[in-house]
Specification:
Radius of gyration: 16 Å
Number of strands: 5
CATH topology: Rossmann fold
Strand content: 15-25%
Helix content: 25-40%
Strand order of the largest sheet: 3-2-1-4-5
Number of helices: 7
Number of domains: 1
Order of helices and strands: HHHEHEHEHEHE
CATH class: Alpha Beta
Shape: globular
């Protein structure tokens, strides 16, 4: 079976992962957020992309400043996947890259920053996920999904533990990018960039 065929046949599973399994076992703490839309129907793809562009804009200047001088560090950015780097809400079967985030990742990689993905997706679909990311234009230095044992802990704790492991490999995580607070809470990143999720609409 081709990669493309496998991708299509696992789309339903991926949707389940990005909705049910990706839901944290414990409620996320409250955070200040933009006003939520009145209903799912009020969030258009165009509005979402505009909001993503606004939210991610400061990250490029930050990466430029943070990597301006050689330091001998091994810098990394950690990215979430669903509705952070791939547009799974509006395009659940094709999952294209999100243009402003692709540009940020490509720029950071050109500055010597490792691009690492930490996702609540189960790791047995890693080949499909890696293919989607590569097709979207991302360099994938590392891809960290959940194995069976990880499904029994809250997503936030899993992602925090993965960032700790990345640090233990010798990386300095200069930024962490996600669209849910479970992607970002727990520390182990110098800076965080929160993309819109409209109070959980885009999980």
């Amino acid at each position: 079976m081709s990669i493309k065929a496998k991708f299509v046949t696992t789309a339903a599973l991926t949707l389940a992962i990005t909705t049910g399994l990706a839901t944290p076992a414990l409620a996320a703490p409250a955070h200040p957020t933009a006003a939520a839309p009145a209903s799912a129907d009020t969030v258009t793809e165009a509005q979402w992309l505009t909001d993503v562009s606004t939210a991610i804009a400061p990250a490029r200047a930050y990466v430029e400043q943070r990597t301006a001088e050689p330091t001998g560090r091994h810098d990394a950015i950690v990215f979430d996947i669903d509705n952070t780097t791939l547009a799974t809400h509006f395009h659940p079967f094709t999952m294209p890259g999100i243009a402003p985030v692709v540009r940020l990742a490509q720029y950071a990689h050109s500055r010597g920053v490792a691009i690492i993905f930490v996702t609540a997706r189960v790791d047995f679909i890693d080949p499909i996920t890696r293919h989607s990311l590569s097709e979207a234009g991302y360099t994938v230095d590392e891809l960290r999904g959940r194995d069976f044992s990880d499904l029994f802990e809250p997503v936030q704790q899993f992602k925090t533990n993965e960032r700790i492991m990345v640090e233990n490999e010798g990386y300095t995580i200069i930024a962490n990018v996600g669209n849910n607070w479970t992607d970002l809470d727990g520390g182990h990143a110098e800076q965080t960039f929160k993309l819109p999720d409209y109070n959980g609409l885009l999980s």
